[in-house]
Amino acid sequence: MRLRQIEIFYHVYRTGSISAAARDLNVSQPSVSKVLRHAEDRLGFALFMRRKGRLIPTAAADELFVEAEDIYARLSTFNRSLENIRSRKGGHLRLGVLPSLSLSVGPELVARLRDHDPNLSFELTTLHSVEIEAALREKRVDMCIGFEPVDDPRIQNHHVGDGRMVIVSGQPLAGSPAEVTEHVLHGAEMIGISESGPLGTMIRQQLDDRGIVPQEVATAHTYHVALSLVRKQVGLALTDQFTAYSHLGVGLQRYLLSNFPGYSIYAITLADHPDEGKVALAVDALRDVVATVAEGILSLQPRKS
């Protein structure tokens, strides 16, 4: 079926009549009937049965409509993208950001770049670490922000800063200063975070190597849920500092982990991006954002007595 035939079929199926489909499409009824008849001739089977002035979908039409609905939805998305491109005054930057960095670093980067060029527009997508390489290779994003480099000659990794791990608690840890060691987790009720990528792997390895065995009482699939559980005092959570000091962690007790490995943050881009200047500007801005956010986090730490 041609795209026009799919469009006619979609509207006739949804409205149940030639006349209603014609009104939706702002075309004449004879043109709708003609396209639909040609589609059925081309397919070799009927899509509708005519009964008392209405069109009743056949079993084949019911099956095809599921696919047609998906195609039509994608066509609508395509047309919206065309309108967005037409209305842009300046460049457009598509960012893929880890969920944990999408609450602080991502918005701050967009705000800073908009200050630099108010005509820039943006699209922010949250991606897990395992999705970054494919998103870049398929050119669905211009730059990703992640915790580990991608090993691919077609991709460039720009180290833009570092971070530390933080224990988040719903109430003060007895006798604990601003920084604590991982030993406070031993035997403690803790909320695990699944699908946490390289940080999760590092945390599990470090705790195993040090003989630290928390009591995992709940597992969350997102940092938002994990810190919500902390707020209900279900248990402690071990997160990166950007999550802990985002708006999700406001009002919670947060302790930087001392003597525990941190992590690096990377801007990850295609090596041959067609707009190198735009990407370079974003990488430089991200480096400043990570430093600024990290500095702001440290300023929130209470002074040791």
Overview of this protein structure:
By secondary structure, the protein is an alpha/beta fold. The protein has three domains: 85 residues, Orthogonal Bundle (Arc Repressor Mutant, subunit A), CATH 1.10.10; 108 residues, Periplasmic binding protein-like II (D-Maltodextrin-Binding Protein, domain 2, 3-Layer(aba) Sandwich), CATH 3.40.190.10; 92 residues, D-Maltodextrin-Binding Protein, domain 2 (3-Layer(aba) Sandwich). Helix content is 45%, strand content 23%. It is built from ten helices and 13 strands. The protein has a six-stranded mixed beta sheet with strand order 8-12-7-11-9-10. A five-stranded mixed beta sheet has the order 4-3-5-13-6, with helices on both faces. A two-stranded antiparallel sheet has the order 1-2. The protein is elongated and about 80 Å long. 30% of the residues are buried.
